[in-house]
Amino acid sequence: MRDTVARTEALTRGWTPAHFGRTRAPGKWTGQQILTHLAQTELALGPRARMALTTPGYTAQPFDQD
Length: 66
Prior knowledge:
Blueprint: H1 4-12, H2 17-21, H3 31-54
């Protein structure tokens, strides 16, 4: 998690808007969709991981990803 921003920036450095809108294959997510998913996952799972690491007996609550 610590390296996510730097790694993402390094991987996408030099991308044009067209790169963000392109898919690798038909039916696959675009670069923009993948990056949005990564950001949403960080928002959902980052606090849960920190809470689990700092709270004795912590039980994670399920969430509906859809």
